[in-house]
Automatic annotation (TrEMBL):
<comment type="pathway">
    <text>Purine metabolism; IMP biosynthesis via de novo pathway; 5-amino-1-(5-phospho-D-ribosyl)imidazole from N(2)-formyl-N(1)-(5-phospho-D-ribosyl)glycinamide: step 1/2.</text>
</comment>
<comment type="function">
    <text>Part of the phosphoribosylformylglycinamidine synthase complex involved in the purines biosynthetic pathway. Catalyzes the ATP-dependent conversion of formylglycinamide ribonucleotide (FGAR) and glutamine to yield formylglycinamidine ribonucleotide (FGAM) and glutamate. The FGAM synthase complex is composed of three subunits. PurQ produces an ammonia molecule by converting glutamine to glutamate. PurL transfers the ammonia molecule to FGAR to form FGAM in an ATP-dependent manner.</text>
</comment>
<dbReference type="InterPro" id="IPR010075">
    <property type="entry name" value="PRibForGlyAmidine_synth_PurQ"/>
</dbReference>
<dbReference type="Pfam" id="PF13507">
    <property type="entry name" value="GATase_5"/>
</dbReference>
<keyword id="KW-0378">Hydrolase</keyword>
<keyword id="KW-0315">Glutamine amidotransferase</keyword>
<keyword id="KW-0963">Cytoplasm</keyword>
<keyword id="KW-0067">ATP-binding</keyword>
<feature type="active site" description="Nucleophile">
    <location>
        <position position="87"/>
    </location>
</feature>
<dbReference type="InterPro" id="IPR029062">
    <property type="entry name" value="Class_I_gatase-like"/>
</dbReference>
<protein>
    <recommendedName>
        <fullName>Phosphoribosylformylglycinamidine synthase subunit PurQ</fullName>
        <ecNumber>6.3.5.3</ecNumber>
        <ecNumber>3.5.1.2</ecNumber>
    </recommendedName>
</protein>
<comment type="subunit">
    <text>Part of the FGAM synthase complex composed of 1 PurL, 1 PurQ and 2 PurS subunits.</text>
</comment>
<keyword id="KW-0436">Ligase</keyword>
<feature type="active site">
    <location>
        <position position="198"/>
    </location>
</feature>
<keyword id="KW-0658">Purine biosynthesis</keyword>
<keyword id="KW-0547">Nucleotide-binding</keyword>
<feature type="active site">
    <location>
        <position position="196"/>
    </location>
</feature>
Length: 226
């Protein structure tokens, strides 16, 4: 039986189709989920894609956090459902308090779009087991509100508990504290990051295929626990 991974579409989502394609290339069955539908249609994991949910009004991700589908996702994530938030999806996870901290305006006040080198810091999550700790990967990055911030106590706790999953290399593109590009929750089933692994799954269209490991990781995790 094929592993089913849901991809939520909010008003203003941009990269939902790309995420579904990445899932398919990894060998999973992508399932389209609508923001107004509380039913997750028996998916085994969920991706919250990049874009500009609800036009990024109020704060990025702040309105999407209250959508009907998120009510179910929040409950199931706390019960162990693997959830990946990419860019705007990371913002939604922070607004939902599934991950700590917040994403703020880039420190240079400009939108950034570049191929970004990252270092993998944690391979014990549902979405990163196919990588090696310390591995360096390159995936696209595109954001205007991508600066990760949190109070010093939260940052120290993330570092001490190994919950920093990815860190920026060469250049900090948005002013994120401690060069943090992605984090996870305590259980490791919820991961959020600003760069876009779904845009690095094919040699024809991406700078690398380094992003495919996110999706193969969760498929293997789900098969192993089924």
């Amino acid at each position: 039986m094929t592993t089913r991974i849901g991809v939520v579409t909010f008003p203003g989502s941009l990269d939902d189709a790309d995420a579904r394609r990445a899932i398919r290339l990894a060998g999973g069955e992508p399932v389209a989920l609508w923001h107004r539908d509380k039913d997750l249609h028996q998916v085994d994991a969920v991706v919250l894609p990049g874009g500009f949910s609800y036009g990024d009004y109020l704060r990025c991700g702040a309105i999407a956090r209250f959508s009907p589908v998120m009510e179910t996702i929040i409950d199931q994530a706390r019960a162990g459902l693997p959830v990946l938030g990419i860019c705007n999806g990371f913002q939604v996870l922070c607004e939902s308090h599934l991950l700590p901290g917040a994403l703020t305006r880039n420190d240079h006040l400009h939108f950034v779009c570049r191929d970004q080198r990252l270092r993998v810091e944690n391979t014990d999550t549902a979405w990163t087991s196919d990588y090696a700790e310390g591995q360096e990967i390159t995936v696209p990055l595109k954001n205007g509100e991508g600066g990760y911030v949190a109070d010093e106590r939260t940052l120290d706790e993330l570092e001490a508990t190994g919950r920093v999953v990815f860190r920026y290399l060469d250049v900090n593109p948005n002013g994120s504290r401690r060069d943090i590009a992605g984090i996870c929750n305590e259980a490791g089933n919820v991961v959020g990051l600003m760069p876009h692994p779904e845009h690095a799954v094919e040699a024809l269209t991406g700078p690398t295929t380094d992003g495919l490991g996110f999706f193969t990781s969760v498929l293997k995790k789900l098969v192993a626990t089924s």
